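Re: duplicated header lines in exported structure tokens

Our pipeline writes sequence and tokens for each protein into one text file. With two proteins the header for the second block appears twice in some exports. Here is an export where it did not happen, for reference. First protein block:
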Amino acid sequence: MVIMKKLIILCAICLSWASVHAQEREIRMPDEPVRRTNIAEVDRGYWCSIELGGGSTTMEGMKNVAMAGVAFTNGYRFNQYLKVGAGIGVLYYPNNSNVRATKHHLAMPLFVNARGNILSDEIRRVVPYWSVNVGTTLPDGLFLTPGVGLRIGEQRSAFLIGINYTFRHLKAQPERTEDYSGVMLKLGYEF
């Protein structure tokens, strides 16, 4: 019986020591993984594009002028359906002397741009888009260029192919401003 009491006391001491020791033990949980933001998954923020284009005015009964150019646009992306920005470019008129009242073949468009997807690009690699440029071409005058096209690629990294109809004032010969309209094909990259 004495041995039994000693055994019970020994077990009680061991259990109390184990419970005290368990309370002092520090358990470290693994660190939470670091989540890095993928720019392709961000829906808002800065965006920019560079586009090359070429085309011609399409005026019946008038001399038409060919044009080619490059434009750089940057701005803010509200979501995939609306992006607003400002742009600058260089426009080249190869047959300048036939229509324009200047000897310079180059002009500089300054414009604001609004564009967006027509369909969601979350699950598609090819989506249709819309675009509108409004601005002025120095030294000619005001222009408006609505267009549609296809974005090919990811949400924040896509190639662009589009067709635009352009309405523009040109300083025509002899020293007057004429309204011209035309069609331009554009190729570009947007991120």
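Second protein block, exported in the same file:
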Amino acid sequence: MKKFNKTYLMGIVCLLFAAWIAWQTSSIPNKLVSNEPGPKMFPYISAAGIAVMSVLSMIFDGKKENEAKEAGQAKPYLDKKGWMRMGLILVECLLFAVFMNLIGFWITAMIGMFVFVMTLKSGKKVNLIFAIVLCVALSSLCYFGFTRGFQIPLPSGTLWKALGIKML
């Protein structure tokens, strides 16, 4: 039998969270238009993704954690640097929310995604050109997918409205 560790505990917590998301999503009313996926699609995809990644983490990372414990090389789940990085990420998320309303989703998403990539690289080398192209491409895909594809408006920014500039 496998030893119970923090990875398994977090996996179980995330599986319960995924189940809660799926349960709450089931209470969303169906759309009347039958040829569209409806408002339940993305929450169900999110719940499934969280569940799959939790199970994979429990299988692979949990095994590594147990092997490290047995070899006497176990590291703390979050050391001081890890806690500081988590705090920085929370501050970045709050700034993302503020600036999304101020300068709009599209610009904020490009800048915010780049900042997240740089924060999460944790000492690893990241190709700067690739990171910039990835951030611009994914932010544009999200923005135009929602605004043009799904016809869901995203914040365009109060700053641009105040200046009389019409954003895409």
